[in-house]
TrEMBL record:
<dbReference type="InterPro" id="IPR052952">
    <property type="entry name" value="MFS-Transporter"/>
</dbReference>
<dbReference type="InterPro" id="IPR036259">
    <property type="entry name" value="MFS_trans_sf"/>
</dbReference>
<feature type="transmembrane region" description="Helical">
    <location>
        <begin position="214"/>
        <end position="236"/>
    </location>
</feature>
<protein>
    <submittedName>
        <fullName>MFS transporter</fullName>
    </submittedName>
</protein>
<dbReference type="GO" id="GO:0022857">
    <property type="term" value="F:transmembrane transporter activity"/>
</dbReference>
<keyword id="KW-1133">Transmembrane helix</keyword>
<feature type="transmembrane region" description="Helical">
    <location>
        <begin position="302"/>
        <end position="322"/>
    </location>
</feature>
<dbReference type="InterPro" id="IPR011701">
    <property type="entry name" value="MFS"/>
</dbReference>
<feature type="transmembrane region" description="Helical">
    <location>
        <begin position="276"/>
        <end position="296"/>
    </location>
</feature>
<feature type="transmembrane region" description="Helical">
    <location>
        <begin position="136"/>
        <end position="155"/>
    </location>
</feature>
<dbReference type="InterPro" id="IPR020846">
    <property type="entry name" value="MFS_dom"/>
</dbReference>
<feature type="transmembrane region" description="Helical">
    <location>
        <begin position="43"/>
        <end position="65"/>
    </location>
</feature>
<feature type="transmembrane region" description="Helical">
    <location>
        <begin position="242"/>
        <end position="264"/>
    </location>
</feature>
<feature type="transmembrane region" description="Helical">
    <location>
        <begin position="368"/>
        <end position="388"/>
    </location>
</feature>
<dbReference type="Pfam" id="PF07690">
    <property type="entry name" value="MFS_1"/>
</dbReference>
<feature type="transmembrane region" description="Helical">
    <location>
        <begin position="343"/>
        <end position="362"/>
    </location>
</feature>
<keyword id="KW-0472">Membrane</keyword>
Amino acid sequence: MRSSLFPLAVTLAVQVLVSMAVVTVPVLAPAVAAETGASASHVGIFIAMVYGASMVASLVSGPLVQRFGAIRLSQACLVVCAVGLACVATAVPTLFVVGAIFLGMGYGPVTPASSHILAKSTPRERMSFIFSLKQTGVPIGGALAGALVPALVLWGGWRAAALAVAGACLATSISAQPLREALDTDRDPDRPLVIASLAGPLRYTLRDPVLRRLAFCSFFFAALQLCLITFLVTYLTLNVGISLVAAGLMLASAQAGGAVGRIGWGMIADHWGRPVRLLGLLAIAMGAAAVATGRFTPQWPAVSVALVCAAFGATAIGWNGVYLAQVARLAPPGKAGDATGGALVFTYAGVLFGPPAFTFLIGGGISFASAFVVLAVPAVACGLWLFWRDGNQNEPERGAPGKLENR
């Protein structure tokens, strides 16, 4: 147990910091907009650029892990994220674009690198649980950004807040150095950096009707998830009239709900044995939470707002683990990683589509509240589709769930 918890702690810390770095910019959006005069809704374009770079970086991370080692790559990711935040702190429009690209380049390879470490150190019978715990690093990092960054803004301004998070990334990168000798023993410095073909993973996904259906639905789930993370703080401060600090705490509440949901829904799916039906129910619930979020007014009690945000996070952020596990179950034998990679292309596409679509709706004169509802409609439709198609049949387990992220 001890041998698996040590690598888990290391990989979780890295995941938390890079996730915090990415979510820091949406939290800063109202303060940046107030100083620069730019629309706060433009943060949707920024996040789209982050995840576009992240998708490309994650696809090429395999050879980098094998040549340099997972810890060294994780250290590099933390440094690159710090550089990205430093670019944002300049408030120069061109460097905002550069900062988004750097943040994406730092965010993308972290999951493959951490999965490489955990696959070596985790007993097979505990792999699902350990990997689920590691995946909570994303909402935990977002919760820390929501809780701490507004306080840093009040303390020293938004530039100081961005640089403080950048400093935390650098400190974590340095602290990981003593671990490299123990965890990067399998690196091959002579391995050529050859990028494998990307057509194979897509073929596995598109060939199977159930995988194809899940991947298609994940596009809309991911779009709504990123709109929640990206625009909640701006919506609460500009439209509901609560302070930046309080709005950050509401985002932290949503992220905390997502962290609990990622583990809880996975346990329920395993116990119930109907993961597709559970995904359908989660999609309907996230749509209902989005509608409730759109109904916020200044008269709502803070506790009620926090509870709705937590429910929104538990569903719109918490669905990923159930989805990825089911993709692995449906994969051809020994091809769980390829099928997961192909399915994630659709998921990342939703990440890229969601925030710009939300920004477009706001630019067209639609309110933030209505935009949340518009993005919720296709997610609910997909939920009803999954629930109906699942019917009374269990999908066969054709793959090895334990190899979900061993890519």
